[in-house]
Amino acid sequence: MCNKEREEIKMEKKKYYMTTAIAYTSGKPHIGNTYEIVLADSIARFKRFEGYDVFFQTGTDEHGQKIELKAQEAGITPKVFVDGIANQIKGIWDLMNTSYDKFVRTTDEYHEKQVQKMFKKLYEQGDIYKGHYEGMYCTPCESFFTTSQLVDGKCPDCGREVKPAKEEAYFLKLSNYTERLIEHIKANPEFIQPESRKNEMMNNFLLPGLQDLCVSRTSFKWGIPVDFDDKHVVYVWLDALSNYITGIGYDADGNHDEKFIKNWPAELHLIGKDILRFHTIYWPIMLMALDLPLPKQVFGHPWLLQGDGKMSKSKGNVIYADDLVSIFGVDAVRYFVLHEMPFDNDGVITWELLVERINSDLANTLGNLVNRTISMSNKYFGGTVNNADVKEAIDEELKALALETPKKVLAKIEKLKVADAISEIFTLFKRCNKYIDETMPWILAKEEETKARLETVLYNLIEGITIGASLLASFMPETAQKILTQLNTKQRTLEELSQYGLYPSGNKVTEKPEILFARLDLEEVLAKVEAQKEETTPVEDDGIDIEAKPEITYDDFAKLQFQVGEIIACEEVKKSKKLLCSQVKVGSQIRQIVSGIKAHYTPEQMVGKKVMVVTNLKPAKLAGILSEGMLLCAEDEQGALSLMIPEKDMPAGAEIC
Question: What whole-number distance in Å separates Cα of residue 222 and Cα of residue 230?
């Protein structure tokens, strides 16, 4: 075997490709949706910590009837609608400090072309055929169900109303690969996790027999067109699921990107338990039909529930990540959602539980430990930490636990038991707190002959905290870095964590320790929550009275020309806090219009809108840029602006009369 081959094998052993489900762009994701990306991020960070070459992909699912309807309701095109929601989702993922390597969108040109090629390939080889579908259809889930699959006459997945539907469709022949998939699951017990999910898929779906899967639709247009039958668009699951390979450069013609050759098959698909069927039955069969290896593991995580059940806007019990962060901070929210979710049971989030955990675990156990240890180092030794090596039996217990903790955390992460891994780290922090109570540094400080013992005690505490913080970095990255910075040290590697006593003797901690987590008052938190609700709750519209301008005649009004314009491009005006510069199509002309609406719309939100334009306004320069008209807006009492948009889709240039 040559050196190059050895290097390739070494690289293959070290690669780790993982994905989340891609978020559906029907609206803002709540904290239950956000849990998945935080969980995935913690696993990705830890795998990097282990030395793996990680590629972590997430993104957005942007096609389907539901989005088409929502865009119609908003009076905008589906692409403009999904652009806005995709930016919002990406913003929340970034807010939660998630370290994804690729954010894929199913409206990406490359993805759409590959989906078309995959569809055609499967059709030409006989795995997709044309027929008719008739059944009960759930629009929110974009799924057909037989009557026997319904629960109390409603959708078995979301519980909403279903309606009878019939349409021409293409189908994927699941029966061609069912037995092969059953054998794969039996031969690879880790393929579907947790175990209870595997049993559910086998007993409820695979063993009773599968119906062929509908993979195209004709009742709506917002999707990837079937290029050889443009009456059809590719149905959401074939479209959405294939992002896991198109996002890393899969090519249906075989001209794969190096990233795909290196990373596929994925080590882990991390998804919610409600979409397990699509990822463990339909997706593997699609891959088999494409002659591709299957992902090594699909993990269906449980749900994060509100105290009164699954979050939904209709129940009014939705909690959003950005609202939580504004009150508690990013790492406190990350800690809660990661630590409170059992491995295979649903977790619960309430404001009361959040306050309780932050006060007990973060403020008391962790924050107090770090603050006390640094403060004592400053008080007794001017911040200098020395290992005087004056040992007692109690030290060995702390040392043993500090060396065992990395092994325990590693074992838990191997099984994706992230909550248990975090508990092991906090067991070490709790043991450090107990060590303070056992050694009583304040007593040791009273006598000169026990000063060396005091130095050893503080050194052991610093060492224990450093080991704990190094392990904590995958789950609470900002907090871990704050701790290590205050200790004037850096994160240890996994190999270094097998050794005790690496903190340099004579090193100095910070003079002014930072409070990591302040204790919270529940009543104050609940008051902030109510204030947030008031800010977002619509108030009854009694109308607005404004000062009347002098009356004009019809001849005066007739001098103004109003037309529909389509914004085809928009950008911020540099050095201006208020202005956006739009390129507006009016009839066959393109006009440049400068508007003071930067505080109310982003350039991305502007593009694609049909708006009302004053087209015979004399051109003028604003901030040195020529403006050839005016966009009409409505303004409320708070000064918020809303562009005036035609109720129905009208062509650019249509006269407003």
Answer: 12
